[in-house]
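WP5 quarterly update. Target: G protein-coupled receptor 55. Source organism: Catagonus wagneri. Length: 320 aa.
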Amino acid sequence: MSQLNRSEDCSFQDVDELMKTVQLAVHIPTFLLGLLLNLLAIRGFGSFLKKRWPCYAATSIYMINLAVFDLLLVLSLPFKMTLTHVKAPFPSFCTLVECLYFISMYGSIFTICFISLDRFLAIRYPLLVSQLRSPRKIFGICCVIWVLVWVGSTPVYSFHGKVENYTCFHNMSDGTWSAKVFFPLEVFGFLLPMSIMGFCSSRSIRILVRRRNHTQDWVQQKACIWTIAANLAVFVVSFLPVHLSFFLQFLVRNGFIVECRAKRNISLFLQLSMCFSNVNCCLDVFCYYFVIKEFRMDIMTHHRPSRVQLVLQDTMTTRG
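Structure tokens (predicted):
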């Protein structure tokens, strides 16, 4: 999705050439590592669903859902690398690849948002949530997330409009950058989930800190606090630059920014931010395996986990 308003006196060829090298350096290891580790994560959490369904269902279902979205992103990377520089054999194939890419991105964002909300409710209202967090309801939430991202992907079908000689993820039509498409994407696709996650994370940290003098499990709760803060930071670092670059590109495409050097810098920033945000499909794996480790440690104790242990397990379910 580089700068599309190309003109004779403002070339973006050097930016695109630089990004070819960067994408190869970033996407190839991301694809190989992400494919292997996310498949292992799905297998690992699937085994917990079969063997320890009552205790670990909620976390496992959320984790599998997040891993599936990450896997979709991983599978789209080879096509994204190729089709950004080579014309697609037919337009519908280009649309499919773009849909998979953006569905996986926003599916991950929504999943992390619901995980953060679920964790906050588990900390704030543990008795109430224990009755509401049934596997069927968690599965239903994940289904709602899939419906939301698929419905929200409909603007992708008109990304290129009547533009001729386009390549995938480039040469988006003017309608793609219209206010009626851009602002709902920014508000509901990123700003609202980030606000919910920020609120839930800050409240969760505050509640755990207040319990410091009233609990014997402060070491575990302190680990929860650091994990919540780190996950929020990683979420913001991962997705804020991408959506900031979307906003800058919106200004370019609607004539608010016209200086050539600024356009080139925004094009480079947009492509770099999208490229490096994809690395998070691998970073999630560290969270997956930390949760699995906690599960196995709890199983070895041969008793039902305490409320603090459950909070810790659910705390480890966001990015980082």
